Amino acid sequence: MACGDFLDRLLPDPDVRATVLSFMAQSVLAAHEAGPSTWHSSIYRGRSVLLNVSHCYMLAIEREAFYVVVNIDHVTDDLSTELGERLNSAKSFVTIPKGRVVTLRYEEVDEFLPLLVQAHLAVVAVAGPMFIRTPNAANHYSGVIDAISSRTGIELPDPEYFDRASSGSAGSVDSRFDELGNLYDEFVTSFAMESIGIAHAQMYVQGRDSAEANFGELCRAADAGEDVVDRVLIHLLPHAKTKGNLAKGAWIHVAPAITKDAKALFEGAGWAKAEDWPAITAGLLAFVRRCVESPDQVGAAVAAFSQKGLQAGMVTPILNALRPDAFLISNKKSCALVSFLSGAKHTTSLSGYPALNAAGFAEIERLRPMFAAHDRPERMTDSDLFDMFGHWLVAVRKFAFGKQPAGAAAAAHGVTTSWLFQCNPKIYDLRAALRELPAITWVVRQHKADIAEGHTAFLWESGPNAGILARGRIAAPPLTRVDQSADEKFMLEPGQFKSTELFVPVEIEHVYRPPVSRAALRRNSNLAGLSILNASQGTNFPVTDAEAEALLELEAPEDARFWSVSTPAKRWTEFHDGGFVAVAWPEIGDISGMTREEFDRALDRAAVANPGDYGHTGAAQMWTFASIVPGDRIVASSGPDVALGIGTVIGPYAYVDSSPHAHRLAVRWDDVQARRHASDPKWQRLVAELTPEEFDEAAGSPPIAPAQDLDDEVEPGVTVPELVEVDEPAVPIEPNEVIDLEDVAVATAFDPELLERWVRAIHRKGQAVLYGPPGTGKTFVADWLARHLAGGGYGTIETVQFHPAYSYEEFMAGIRPRTRPDGSLEYALEDGFFVRFCDRARKLRGTSVLIIDELNRANLPRVFGELMYLLEYRDKDVAIAGSRRFSIPDNVRIIGTMNTADRSIALVDHALRRRFAFLGLWPNYDVLRNLPSTSGIDVEGLIGVLKKLNSAIDDPHYEVGISFFCGADLAASMADIWQMEIEPYIEEYFFDRRSLLGEYRWEKVEARIFGKGSGDG
């Protein structure tokens, strides 16, 4: 759809359209006059027309209203009372001094717009030159300018980007800096000017004041010969803001590296001995003094300073506090930001600090005009703002440095011309339609204004065999009614499509063989961000240009041929992981340079030297194998009816002398799901050419469960032992969803580095226990960790809850009663839950995880039995009940949860403790701060009450956690939660301190939790 048509649909009233577009034209001219390279126009998410000036959204036209940035100094006296009130209540647009965003509905245009024009244009004039020139050519859409010009008669310019002026194209756009500008806007409005951001900013100034006082006193005392060992550690190293650290006068910093005692930390880690501290602290003080007095010697100072544990994160906060003009704080957050902006990889090591620091200040110089437009607390420096921005990007925004935006988010950076259309196989038989129809009619329910004639459509089928089946061209816009008669025979539920809906005809241009499965998309780094993989509800999804190009690369050429290559089942994992398909007979040698006559003679010699190994006919098919070319499609077949995998040949024939399967073709495996197709002897040949129909039938055949324990490999022509066919598989027919640790961190509010340590511990030990007081989310975290561990594989996740009556017979094996058909009882030997779980896991590729909830409520030595031995010796097997030999598969991980307030924790003996990694979970108050349902609750007040209560409990194993408060509509249920769940718990704990209990009754804490006053609690 042309941009002019898009504007007409946004502004259907011709009078409103003329007024608003005239205003837009004036704004464009003002922006260009203020700075020709500081503005651009764009279409955002297919719903808004934007004018951006120096990274700021100055004006947005939408369907119901448009948004204008105005200057209060120009409008307060002139506007009506109603508009003045609206300005006073509007959200501050803090990037522009004294600017606010005014929302104006179109029915108010005549009344208010004339009063806003002068004020808005004044802000545009101020904003334009405020920043350095902005290379926004990647986002600028000239169609907006052309459409406004044609409808207003006003000739409008395009921006004059400096990258175009210097290179003649938009190819040299500095995408890092351009992307950062939009992120900075978000940082300012969503964090920096909120209470949490203001408090964060003040810590830089407060830390600097105390650092200057501490440092001066330390230098005086050291020069006077006083003992300053403890003072150096307490006053130069950055400490967390805890009661203990505050009590001893430690230096509190926004980027703390010490939580309790520095000596205990270093000596416990083996970094220092007690007798080393005088030398260590003297060296640290000398290092800081040298850097502060001569910042240009930081490289030499770093080279001369060496103390294990005192890395950049420990020593750079004091350098930054004393000389913010010369030193940045070095940690993972600032390192990620500097590396992202500079395009060079930096490290957080002390040896790498001089380079990181220099690169960081170079980027600050480039960003300084952008920082200058931001109101900040007094004495907050550019280096403070840079560090705070990096903190927000990593810890709050969870920004994926260096990764391109995916799906709909990427589409927001320009006008999308490619789409993914989703079909439900229960409603429409797309596969059958593709075999017969040259064009298919598709319903359009999302992005109706953006889908246009000539756009590309990728056709997706949902369900168990989900994937992209075809590509086509949209032949008419959604406003056009089309003939659906050809589609009727493929509509399984015609009533799903209403006559009032919009449709487009899609002319089929390519059919994917095989379909590009969901698993294949996730494995492809260019396609893992497709919108439909992250949010599958809808009919139409935007596809970025990069994603469209990646999908086109998966298409087989029109002259591609289709082949089956017999694959020994035991070799399949090697072939799949290595990215090739291969055949045996290394005795023949490399045939790439042979003529057919030379090949036949080599084959005869090999057959005489190895009588009976293979039939001559089968071996001769290697000549056909060597003729397969890149672009051809391959089915790795086992026996007459099993396809182990389907791929595309990406390299010519090659010979690997060191392998028994020496003759190879490089293959990109597009589908590694084993499937059972119609039986045919031709699939047992070493190499067989397939028809496109045979290939499609194999690609679309029913999945069978992945298996590892296949019999020994077989020769071509011999049926592979049968795999287990699955009608309703107990495990996914596609790999489990990949859950990154960043996803776990977002869901649980735990630090990614801590989670990474936990995962390493689980893999190292094979089993771990999440322990902590009630309400800390142990089961919730265990579930997320299990999903991460099993992600990308075919493993299963199962849960069992222990209780005091749980037995060895239930968990491992034993004689258990069973009812016969006649109603009588028999006592049979049966495998228990864990043994059955391991048997299932042993057959599955990928990690399987067993969650044992309430681990310590059972008599563990009695329940585990021989498992006590196997947990420590994972490579061994033992005889269990009935003399069966049993072992724990390598792919099994165990996660237990343990409530430390339960008295039965004493049942966990030391032998068992040694076999598990113990991971502590304590109340994480950030979870409460991030809850979506805290309306009406003073979250900080609630946190304050909980902290005070837990301080009174004075035992971390009995603290009150946060999961009590994670339900919906917290305000409505808070009184019930406190009186029915918290009070009974603390009544038991404070049974001998009734006066203390009274301080935490509901009537005492209600006011603080609801923010109605200080309360008494």
Could you please describe the fold and organization of this structure?
There is one protein chain. The protein is of the alpha+beta class and 1017 residues long. Strands 12, 13, 14, 15, 16, 17, 18 and 19 form an eight-stranded mixed β-sheet that branches. α9 (195-223) packs antiparallel against α10 and α9 packs across α15. The longest helix has 29 residues, at 195-223. Mean pLDDT is 77; it is low at 91-95, 162-175, 403-414 and 706-733.
Could you give a short description of this structure?
The protein is of the alpha+beta class. The chain is 41% helix and 16% strand. A hairpin with a 2-residue loop joins strand 2 (48-53) and strand 3 (56-61).
Which properties best describe this structure?
single chain; alpha+beta; eight-stranded mixed beta sheet; six-stranded mixed beta sheet
Question: How would you state the average pLDDT, rounded?
Answer: 77
Determine the number of helices (DSSP H or I, runs of at least 4 residues).
40
User: What's the quaternary structure here?
Assistant: single chain
The chain-level structural class is alpha+beta
Largest sheet: 8 strands, mixed
Count the E strands.
28
Distance between the termini: 62 Å
Task: Outline the secondary-structure elements.
Elements: H1 3-10, H2 14-34, E1 39-44, E2 48-53, E3 56-61, E4 65-71, H3 72-75, H4 81-89, E5 99-105, H5 109-127, H6 142-152, H7 162-167, H8 175-192, H9 195-223, H10 229-236, H11 243-247, H12 262-268, H13 277-293, H14 298-304, H15 312-322, H16 332-342, H17 353-372, H18 382-396, H19 407-411, E6 418-423, H20 430-436, E7 439-444, E8 456-461, E9 467-474, E10 502-517, H21 518-523, H22 531-534, E11 540-543, H23 545-553, E12 562-566, H24 572-578, E13 580-583, H25 596-609, H26 616-626, E14 633-638, E15 642-649, E16 654-655, E17 663-671, E18 675-676, E19 687-690, H27 692-699, H28 741-748, H29 752-765, E20 767-772, H30 778-790, E21 797-801, H31 808-811, E22 813-819, E23 825-831, H32 833-842, E24 848-853, H33 860-864, H34 867-872, E25 878-879, E26 885-886, E27 892-899, H35 910-915, E28 917-920, H36 926-929, H37 939-953, H38 970-989, H39 994-998, H40 1002-1009
Parallel strand pairs: 6-8, 12-14, 20-27, 20-28, 21-24, 24-27
Antiparallel strand pairs: 1-2, 2-3, 3-4, 4-5, 6-11, 7-10, 8-9, 9-10, 12-19, 13-17, 14-15, 15-17, 15-18, 16-17, 22-23, 25-26
